Amino acid sequence: MVGKNCFAIASDRRLGVQLQTIATDFQRVFKIHDKLYIGLSGLATDAQTLWVFRILDSFWYQRLVFRHKLYQLREERDMKPETFASLVSALLYEKRFGPYFCQPVIAGLGDNDEPFICTMDCIGAKELAKDFVVSGTASESLYGACESMYKPNMEPEELFETISQALQASVDRDCLSGWGGYVLIV
Amino acid sequence: MECVLGVVGRDFAVVAADTSAVQSILVHKTDEDKVMVLDSHKLMGASGEPGDRVQFTEFIQKNLHLYQFRNTIPLSTAAAANFTRGELATALRKNPYMVNIILGGYDKDVGASLYYIDYIATLHKIDKGAFGYGSYFCLSLMDKLYHPDMTVEEAVDLVDKCIKEIRLRLVVAPQNFVIKIVDKDGAREYARRELVGHNAPVEAATTVAA
Fold first, then answer.
1. Looking at the complex, does the CB of residue B117 fall below 8 Å from at least one CB of chain A?
2. What is the mean pLDDT of each run of 10 residues along chain A (186 residues)?
3. Hey, which end of chain B has fewer CB within 10 Å, N or C?
4. Set of chain B residues whose Cβ sits within 8 Å of the Cβ of A44
5. Does residue B179 sit at the A interface (CB-CB below 8 Å)?
6. May I have one GO cellular component term (chain B) (predicted)?
């Protein structure tokens, strides 16, 4: 969710296998750099593989953090959120006919601390938004909750309240989501 | 009907598994050890496809040993868990290993830790966990009875309660179990719980599940 020169990214904490809950402290929001975060909903193993490493046929290892660090070394600056979103989109589309079952949500602060958010499907179709983006099993609920609770230009404290309430309301109606939430404000 | 379970206590981890080797309706043996000692301070309890289980756990064990030979220091539990996940993830979209793993270990700096690694390479650090149909009975028992910093007696008592529940409530339940422990003194077998087979107590044949 976008606020005034800030953004918030939140996820629930459940790790489950269909009806069985395995853990209630699973984190699916990962830091790329201080002003760029990616949340990966969907299959936990693919979220971990995308975060950790990916092997091509030619056995090159690529990581999202690794790719960003390499970029940092070459360009001597952090990646812009828009650039990173394009990177993730390309990475996912490479597996078009054997995809990673993940729906990323990317949130970052670009030039002049301008907030940037986007989501994409599991084969990398980017969807930019000016207000909020959602993904996961409770995405329909989340759309409804965010739409009704969102206001433009919220300050960080109010943004935190809004995103937390929207998350809790939505996941409470979805049996596969829940067990608390992580909320990050930047 | 295989079960593997694990619990973390105060500076130790317990990994237990059933010891049945079953194919269709036949029980080949009742003393198959499914908790492999990976190195001096790591235990890997595995369940799943029998061939994959043995091949994969031995593969991990030998690679850990190779690392230790090359680098003169052993891998930490977290590193071993991530290595295992990496191997499973690599094989996942080619030739998947159908093996579910509870990996327990002790490191001097971190203490005891337990990792849940399922067959599609989901990795998560846990305090208590279980795989198999037995998990439907064990996980809620553990949620109720587990507390942090348990002593060895308390943890083994919890495992025994889980075993008792599996024996009682799971259809075609495995009867025999092995319990292994890893702490600062190393990884070793702690106990066997046997109701059938050569080593079972004589009264077991006439006793209801203990």
1. no
2. 96 92 90 92 86 40 72 93 94 91 94 94 94 95 96 96 95 92 95
3. C
4. 122, 124
5. no
6. proteasome core complex
Domain boundaries, chain B: 3-194
Q: Which residues, numbered 29 to 58 in chain B, qualify as contacts with chain A under a Cβ-Cβ cut-off of 8 Å?
A: none
**Is the domain covering B3-194 a CATH 3.30.1330.10 domain?**
no
Concatenated DSSP letters of B36-91: EEEETTEEEEEEESHHHHHHHHHHHHHHHHHHHHHHSSPPPHHHHHHHHHHHHHHH
Neighbour count for residue B6 (Cβ, 10 Å): 29
pLDDT tens digits, B154-169 = 999 999 999 999 999 9
Nearest CA of chain A to the CA of B201: how many Å? 35
Contact state of A15 with B124 under an 8 Å Cβ cutoff: yes
Cβ(A167)–Cβ(A12) under 8 Å? Answer: yes
Question: Are B124 and A22 in contact (CB < 8 Å)?
Answer: yes
Interface predicted TM-score (ipTM)? 0.82
